[in-house]
Amino acid sequence: MDSDGRERMEYLGNLIATRRRPALRRALVPALALVLAAAGCGSNDDSGNGTGSVPGVTEDKIIVGASSPLTGPPAAGCARVHGGAQAWFDKVNAEGGVHGRKIEWEILDDAYDLARAGANARRLADGSYFAIFGGCGSIQPPAIVPVAERAGVPYLFPMAQVPDLYLPAGKKWTYAFSPSWATMFSSVVSWGLQQKGPGSVAVLFTQNAGIESAIEAVKEATEAAGGRYLGEQVVPATTSDWTPIVLRLKELNPDYVVTNQSVELALKLMQAAEEQDFEPNISYLNTISLMADQFIQGIKNPDGSTRLDGKVISAYQVALPSDPSNAECVEAAKVTVPDMAPDGNLMGGCNSARWFVELLERAGPDLTRERLLEVISTVSNEKLSPGAVPADFSNGRHLGPSEIYIYELDGDWVPAGSAKLTDTK
Amino acid sequence: MSLFVSAVVSGIGIGFLYGIMGLSIALLYKSTGIISFAQPPLAMLLAFMGYRYISAGMPLYAAILAMVLTGALLGVLVYWLAFVPQEQHGIFNLILRSIALALIVEQAVVYLLSEGEPFLFPKMWEGGPITLAGINVPRQNLVIIVVTLVLLAALLVFFRHTRLGLLLRAVADSPGVVRLLGVNTRLLMTAAWAVSLIACAVVALLAAPISLVSSAMFAPYVLYAFTAFILGGISSWGGAIAGGIIVGVSSNVAVVYSGTEIAALITFAILGAILILKPAGLFGTSVRERL
Q1: pLDDT digits (tens, 9 = 90+) for A249-289
Q2: CATH topology of A61-179+322-394 equal to that of A182-316+408-420?
Q3: Is the pLDDT of residue B127 over 50?
Q4: I want to staple A87 with a disulfide (CB 3.0 to 4.6 A). Which of A67, A138, A332, B208 is the partner?
Q5: pLDDT by residue (tens digit) across A157-179?
């Protein structure tokens, strides 16, 4: 507590002591002490690890944190996102940091649990961290965003596909690296039906945050592109047998199947589909979740082709590891996470970190949270990182990407074009 | 019609897996009185160990044998480390220990072994599905059916025609009498755990090619395995298999015709109906207690 706080308490204590209600006085003084102590702790920008007036920023460090799954089913995929981001931070730190300050990134495990994410967010907003950066998973942001907005802590670029990060308008501190599932799927379906021809579309989703609006978006995009919407199946992640689900799909005989399964569930789905001689007439349509090396390895044939060549389209806001624009990320990853084969998740983490570092550079040595926000608002349709789509935070936008890259499966993921994000939901 | 038959055939395959898991629980309950919640995570641990054996270069069938032997050894270790100390504090205490053991094993696997999951596990019979009367039957399903029937036959022989098996049946029916006859009941309990974990190893090696090896591979099985165990009559290991088939078939048919949202509802409604009509389960026997 500072000297002002002590003086305030002393004055009030004396004031109360002169009153003629000794019992009330006995209760009020300790209660007042608690209130003043709490107010004193919250009102001072010097709290935590900050020096001067900026939390989480010292002469030689910028301390940022994240809430993300380090354990639990999504941890394996998220580990790659973390690895990619840490690789870029390590590279920047090895080259002297940002304006002489090294980036220290601490990840708190939320085990993909909403309550734990909320608790982590409160800890991350306690004054010890300059910003909440990154994180992986779409369940957690609804718990983190309100805490960050209330506490005035930048919450930047988590690998999450929920609109809570940028909608409704009016957010100040939160900025998204990924569009919502609804926006992504709408764009992929539009692209697919325009490029491959209109047809019938069936949805097969695993239960996750935001899928109801994603289903609506797929329906609208299908009809807008002249296709026919056949229906949806929403399955729990704990499904033990995918055969009956595949049998239902087979009965529908769709031209397109829109999926959001994680790598593990997608491999089980594809295995059951192969056993039942099922595949969509034209293509599976997916976003992000299958851009992982584990998926490719799981369906690879001995001759290097995959069992689904030409039958899967996916989308991501990041270029492939083999693209020259991601060469620096690949090299950085070889140093920090040499056991991780470069894949979409690794590149996503690295590019989101590149966005963050670029903005810190532009904010200059006199770094404050408000200065960072000023710099973000000046970004207008430009590449913050060579390996990612252009970012646009002008005119009050809090969603960076305005387009996504499209990929087709042919032995590995192969660039097939790009799609504008026409409908931000 | 072919859709219905396909759903039934796939349901039988997954039902056998639920049934073997339920059987491992029933075996233990019948011999020791413990309802163990640790069997699914222990099966998951055995799957990871099988994957490690194969990754280390062991041929598949050698790895399968190693998994079975590891299962037996693991059963012995689990019993002596987790259930022997202070065992006099009653069945409820031991059941709670099984819950704690389940959580410990699950988290230990997540922390120590799960990085990079899921892992592919080779099938025992490679190749595409076999078409029977226009129905695609995955080869792994046929392997599951054959192995389960072999397991059931082996257990039948073990419990009816071996001294150890007969003693296990005796201790399940009258533990006090068996003790009075001077039989080492501790040894019998050890054997029961070993046999139960062998069953877990069998379900692990049958499920791993389908479910992939991951820390969550048996999470979907827990509820259905216990349903099979209860449906079968809790003390009948053959009943557990039958219960598993009922659960597997009803669940899969419900998914195909009604969707996943109400499949679980239908499955547990069937469970409820059977228990109302036959409270002791399909093959269980009612027990009278003098109060």
Answers
A1: 999 999 999 999 988 889 999 999 999 999 999 999 998 88
A2: yes
A3: yes
A4: A332
A5: 999 988 889 988 889 999 999 99
Closest CA to B194 of B278, B82, B70: B70
CB contact under 8 A, A263 and B118: yes
Give the span between the Cα atoms of A343 and A79, in whole angstroms.
Answer: 12
Chain A window 51-80: which residues touch B at a Cβ cutoff of 8 Å? Answer: 71-73, 75-76, 79
CA dihedral angle for residue A300, residue A305, residue A306, residue A309, rounded to 10 degrees = 170
Tell me the shortest Cα–Cα distance from B140 to chain A, in angstroms: 10
Architecture of the CATH domain A61-179+322-394: 3-Layer(aba) Sandwich (3.40)
Paired with A315 in beta bridges are: A406
CATH architecture of the domain A182-316+408-420 equals 3-Layer(aba) Sandwich (3.40)
ipTM metric: 0.85
Place of tokens 């029916």: B173
What percent of the residues of chain A are helix, what percent strand, and what percent coil, each to the nearest 5? 45, 20, 40
Q: Which residues of B touch A (CB under 8 A)?
A: 3, 6-7, 10-11, 13-14, 17, 107, 110-111, 114-118, 120, 128-129, 136, 138, 210-212, 214-216, 219-221, 224, 248, 251-253, 255-256, 259-261
Q: What pLDDT shows up at residue B68?
A: 95
Using the CB atoms, write b or e for B116-131: b if 16+ within 10 Å. Answer: ebbbbbebbeeeebee
Instruction: Give the CA count within 13 Å in the CB-facing half-sphere of A70.
Output: 12
Query: Where exactly are the structural domains of chain A?
Result: 3-42, 61-179+322-394, 182-316+408-420
Structure-model confidence comparison of residues A285 and B238, the more confident one: A285
Q: Among A275, A281, A214, which residue's Cα sits nearest to residue A245?
A: A275
CB contact under 8 A, B224 and A240: yes
d(CA B70, CA A384): 53
Say what the pTM is. 0.81
Q: Residue B3 corresponds to which tokens in the numbers above?
A: 């859709």
Q: Is A263 on the interface with B (CB under 8 A)?
A: yes
Closest CA to A78 of A206, A262, A234: A262
Nearest to A62 by CA among A116, A111, A105, A110: A105
Do B39 and B210 contact (CB within 8 A), yes or no?
no
Q: How far is CA A83 from CA A62, A318, A328, A330, in A?
A: 19, 16, 14, 11
Report helix, strand and coil shares of chain B as percent, to nearest 5.
75, 5, 25
Among partner residues B7, B136, B259, which is closest to A233 by beta-carbon distance?
B259
Task: Provide mean pLDDT across the span A204-227.
Answer: 92
Whole-number CA gyration radius for chain B: 19
Residue A1, pLDDT above cutoff 50: no
Q: Which amino acid is at B254?
A: A
| Model confidence at B290: pLDDT above 70 | no
